Amino acid sequence: MTDTATVGTPKGFNKNTFWKAVYFVLLFIVIGGFYWATEQADYIWRWNRLPRYFYYVETIDVTAEIEGEVASITQKDDDSVVIIEGGGESEYYTIPGSDVRVSVGDTIYMGDPIGVYEEGRMGLLLDGLLVTIEVSLVSIFLGILLGLFTGLARISNNPCLKWGAITYIELIRGSPLLVQIMIWYFVLGTIINNLLAKADLFQIPELWFAVASLAIFAGAYVAEIVRAGIQSIHKGQMEAARSLGMTKATAMRKIILPQAFKRILPPLAGQFISLIKDSSLLGVIAIRELTKATREAVTTSLMPYELWFLCGIMYLVITFTLSMFVQYLEKRTAEV
């Protein structure tokens, strides 16, 4: 009897564990290689300076606006109230805390310090992050509404609605977002605010033109996603609903759209993640979102490595959170 040698995977060898180890080794090599490259550039890392770009305490000087004499200093709760009289007029200054730098009877000249207090301020990056989140959320909400109605119009039998939807979709998808932002800010925004000014009405803040450009851009892509989702549902379902006496609108709302929603969630999530990243283009119209705030911080601090890494991580946190939320919605809708 002849023994046959078996050639194959050694006993106890786990292929999955091996490739996981390869991944971590490669990751370590990439991180180590980048660190070595920065060391060769003689770059000094200053991670300890980053917290000030989220929150910092500013020392504020309270200065006199008139010339005169300190008439009185009183305490009101935790604040100090200094009254200065001179030239037939008087001014009072409220100083949080008790760090008053003058005494009763002192002669004060315009611009002299009266007291000092500290106040917490929002850092540059945190301010930019909040603007990015605010603009993105409002744009996503408006983009969903616009995309839903445009998607329904796209498959309508009404030529006016259908051709109008096609025109809007092709115009928006066929031009760069940066150009659309410029048009909204410099052309449409100027025209709209000029018309409002002539009618003695309020002016629309530039932030809303930024939101409009993003929402209309997203709406065109959402419309095509909605159209594809609706058309992926078999026509027999609409025919069955109509045979039960439902109107076309009712069947669309109760039968077709709930099923289509489950199918369009992944592409919708991808579109919204792209929209959040595209909001970085708003810096060209002086909207201080996260990218513009980071650029300003780099200019004043000369810390490009730390700040741009931090900017990327903050975008990643936003997009990853949205991705996890969409996955949660997918699981919930799958259970229904």
UniProtKB/TrEMBL annotation:
InterPro entries referenced in this protein's UniProt entry, alphabetically: AA_ABC_transptr_permease_3TM (IPR010065), ArtM/GltK/GlnP/TcyL/YhdX-like (IPR043429), MetI-like (IPR000515), MetI-like_sf (IPR035906)
Q: Mind telling me what this protein is named?
A: ABC transporter permease
- SUPFAM superfamilies on file: MetI-like
Q: State its role.
A: Part of the binding-protein-dependent transport system for glutamine; probably responsible for the translocation of the substrate across the membrane.
What's the family?
A: Belongs to the binding-protein-dependent transport system permease family. HisMQ subfamily.
The record gives the membrane topology as:
Multi-pass membrane protein
Per the database record, which ranges form the ABC transmembrane type-1 domain?
A: 129-326
Task: Give the taxonomic lineage as stored in the record.
Answer: Bacteria, Pseudomonadati, Thermodesulfobacteriota, Desulfovibrionia, Desulfovibrionales
Matches recorded under Pfam families: BPD_transp_1
Membrane-spanning parts: 21-38, 129-153, 165-187, 207-226, 307-329
Localization, per the record, is:
Cell inner membrane; Cell membrane
Q: Name the PROSITE patterns for this protein.
A: ABC_TM1 (PS50928)
Under Gene3D superfamilies, the record lists: MetI-like
Q: Which UniProt keywords apply?
A: Amino-acid transport, Cell membrane, Membrane, Transmembrane, Transmembrane helix, Transport
